[in-house]
Amino acid sequence: MEASAGLVAGSHNRNELVVIHGHEEPKPLKNLDGQVCEICGDDIGLTVDGDLFVACNECGFPVCRPCYEYERREGTQHCPQCRTRYKRLKGSPRVEGDEDEEDVDDIEHEFNIEDEQNKHKHLVEAMLHGKMSYGRGPEDDESAQFPPVITGGRSRPVSGEFPIGAAHAYGEQISSSSLHKRVHPYPMEEPGSARGDEKKEGGWKERMDDWKLQQGNLVPEPEDANDPDMALIDEARQPLSRKVPIASSKINPYRMLIVARLVILAFFLRYRILNPVHDAIGLWLTSIVCEIWFAFSWILDQFPKWFPIDRETYLDRLSLRYEREGEPNMLAPVDIFVSTVDPMKEPPLVTANTVLSILAMDYPVDKVSCYVSDDGAAMLTFEALSETAEFARKWVPFCKKFSIEPRAPEWYFTLKIDYLKDKVQPTFVKERRAMKREYEEFKIRINALVAKSQKVPSGGWIMQDGTPWPGNNTKDHPGMIQVFLGHSGGVDAEGNELPRLVYVSREKRPGFQHHKKAGAENALIRVSAVLTNAPFMLNLDCDHYVNNSKAVREAMCFLMDPQIGKKVCYVQFPQRFDGIDTHDRYANRNTVFFDINMKGLDGIQGPVYVGTGCVFRRQALYGYEPPKGPKRPKMVSCDCCPCFGRRKKDRKHSKHGGGGATNGVDDDKELLMSQMNFEKKFGQSAIFVTSTLMEEGGVPPSSSPAALLKEAIHVISCGYEDKTEWGTEFGWIYGSITEDILTGFKMHCRGWRSIYCMPKRAAFKGSAPINLSDRLNQVLRWALGSVEIFFSRHCLPGMASREGQLRWLERFAYVNTTIYPFTSLPLLAYCTLPAICLLTDKFIMPPISTFASLLFIALFLSIFATGILELRWSGVSIEEWWRNEQFWVIGGISAHLFAVVQGLLKILAGIDTNFTVTSKATDDEEFGELYTFKWTTLLIPPTTVLVINLVGVVAGISDAINNGYQSWGPLFGKLFFSFWVILHLYPFLKGLMGRQNRTPTIVVIWSNLLASIFSLLWVRIDPFVLKTKGPDTKQCGINC
């Protein structure tokens, strides 16, 4: 793939393909025509049989025959790239060392490679050859009318473009002399052997050692025990990660308390049902229904946290296993997706920082490809990305030279820490100042682009070469691809290669369903499969930058682990946020979910997918099932009657030979091939369909640059997914604005498991809306997505009950993610009940006995104790837990309630709602947005509930004052529930009041409340009216 070859725009349906040059200054490109020797630069030439000469059959490093002969005769006799000893080829003279090889003069007999990967090679090539022209007309001449945007002529593996015949998959051991040093046990001597007789004549100690050796009590010392490489090899064979179970002293009391709370809850509900309140039967019945729903919701939320675990990764072992010195780097390539829509709500500077942090990751540059999806087709995003690519040439080498963290410049330069810590290079301060000045100039250029984009020209945007911008009509434009950084031209200021950076804007036409973010992600899957086809993919929101440069390595410790990696569909990282106020008023960090719920799911079948910060296995997103391990042997049955039927079934099974191990991925692929339904499943693209069969990734070597270019435009066309299974069975699933829940659910249902990775340094960080209205709108969008899923054909409660490969506690979690918005209805009723009780002088419970009092106390103690023990094993602070509880009530009676209403309107009346992108813009003043008041209808229900409860408190206290001492007892129960509601809504009240001239909100609340109470008390006492006891003198007279 070559950079700076122009913007490629086109439409497959309209048979259009345009290359726009001149937007940037073209950079000198390397000549990639033909196969040339990497040593002397001459043509490689052909063998005596007329085939292309291949000197090394291990890595395919291009070397001509004269250089090959010279290297074997005068040099080291090893391949310059993989350091494997050159084999003697047909027609080559023998040299010293060839005597150890078989006396065969045909290279085909010197290797016996019949692994699965070579099997797929012939499969892929045959399929590609047969389908390249299917429905496409005659072959076009691969002439100069198409620029060489994508490499296809060289055999050098770059950016995941692996040779198909590579025998070194990442899950296998590499054939090298250093790796195959093994410790073999000493052979056992047979009785009467010469060695045995000689030992018998030796000393007593030697005979004793020999006897211990034969008995197995003495381990022989290997010959290479003192070899320093041996320790590294042994370390590399160790697992790349491990589970860290929660200490039993923390988890066992927690589980026992959950069971105790369940029992207490059952007794509580029994008491409530058997003791109705006859004079307030309506209030009592409403409270009973609410409490039963709360109990059901608590079970769905609590029991998936039964098996919480932590995990550890070993990055040093990953390097020892896949990054050996002097050998090709075997870390798997990764394609990284960044999605953006509206540059006004998602500022280009934020997206630029995310892209820069990706390009500067601590990962081999030829293994990283960054794809930026501009779903708004904005020229502002395109030009900002062009500026970002230029600044990356200076920023990336600076990051890697000084190992700075984080590698997003905006956040690095605003860190309030000692940036000189652990820095020893004398030039660091000077280069840091220069880089900060460069970044400030870069920001000025980006801000200038933003300012220019505020006013759209009447004729639309014009590019620098005078060509109209293809995306002037954001709802009707062709697909666009621009390679900003690539294999040729993508070098930094020091001449080192940079990762690939590709701009993608999929085609949009009226009358087509584009499926919002899910459709954009699926388009990125296809275009990346055509261009680089890495086996793993990382997706990030445009505001989530890479905070830990080793984040991808952390994920590879699970995905490339030979023991567990093959069954892992994705590795999910927790979401962490910057720019949140100190006390996290609206629970933006959501630490209870990310540090408690997700840890619990990791101990079952894995965490749910949360939309960003997730590394996927490409094969899992394609809908394939995980590989199945060997089946357990059948139990041998006896001759008793109950076993006859079982035994007969076993015999039938053995007759057909079904007891062997099967591989789920291979079975699926063979089935699909036999039915020839690839087009129906994946779409009409031969190159893309071929790439889906390549488990280890890579681009087919027979693909030409022109073919790849046309296919890249073809697979992002708006009609490509018609009559396919995209979005219904695989890829990002359609049907909800929260596509992440369905996408992860589909993979878990096929038997895959996911991993939750929490490195010590947060992997990714993003921005969150700290304003009350924006926060409620964000929660509304999430809840509306769950309601849409509930009313769609993907209804998780029904599907989860039918899916056999989904574990039961995992089903509980998925059902809970779908029905949690409906808790808003009983929650709203329950928050209103205290005020109604205070205003009507009724109560939802009868006068309680001693047993009932103990039951209430036990229930409340179990609730608090469960929360405390959760905080103990998870490490979440009590303030974060309390903020989460408060916002559960605030969001429940506002955003969740509106989500349920909108979902019902969509189902019953067909009224759809528009998707609104959460604004990522930041306020110049620190936490200034926190105090901004933005009116929205979401504020009405919580405000109403708050006012009703405050009025109820005042009315209840005034009534107790009027009625005397005996009415204070029942009042305390009502006041307790009312204050419970007010305390949970306190952050909401602070958000309503804003700054209030910096007067603390609590002062205003208590001032109004106490003023009302004292006013009523003052009126009741009436101190200015003199009251006397005795007869009325006016009636009786003075002398009465």
Structure description:
- GO terms for molecular function: cellulose synthase (UDP-forming) activity; zinc ion binding.
- Residues 37-83 form the RING-type domain.
- The N and C termini lie far apart (117 Å).
- The relative contact order is 0.10.
- With 1040 residues, the chain is of the alpha/beta class.
- The chain is 44% helix and 7% strand.
- Helix 6 runs antiparallel to helix 27, helix 9 (348-359) runs parallel beside helix 10 (379-402) and helix 24 packs antiparallel against helix 25 (808-819).
- Strands 2-1-7-8-6-5-9-13-11-14 form a 10-stranded mixed β-sheet, with helices on both faces. Strands 10-15-12 form a 3-stranded mixed β-sheet.
- The longest helix has 27 residues, at 248-274.
- Among the domains are: 36-95, Zinc/RING finger domain, C3HC4 (zinc finger) (Herpes Virus-1), CATH 3.30.40; 315-626 and 727-779, Spore Coat Polysaccharide Biosynthesis Protein SpsA, Chain A, CATH 3.90.550; 822-840 and 874-1021, no CATH class.
Brief sketch in words of this structure:
The chain is built from 34 helices and 15 strands. It is an alpha/beta fold.
CATH superfamily of one domain: Spore Coat Polysaccharide Biosynthesis Protein SpsA, Chain A
What's the β-strand tally? 15
Largest sheet: 10 strands, mixed
Helix percentage range: 40-55%
Main sheet: strand order: 2-1-7-8-6-5-9-13-11-14
Distance between the termini: 117 Å
Quickly name the level 1 CATH class of one domain.
Alpha Beta
CATH architecture of one domain: Alpha-Beta Complex
Low-confidence stretches: 24-34, 102-117, 131-202, 636-662, 1024-1028
Enzyme class: transferase
InterPro entries: Cellulose_synth, CES_Znf_RING, Nucleotide-diphossugar_trans, Znf_RING, Znf_RING/FYVE/PHD
Subcellular location: Cell membrane
Keywords: Acetylation, Cell membrane, Cell wall biogenesis/degradation, Cellulose biosynthesis, Glycosyltransferase, Manganese, Membrane, Metal-binding, Transferase, Transmembrane, Transmembrane helix, Zinc, Zinc-finger
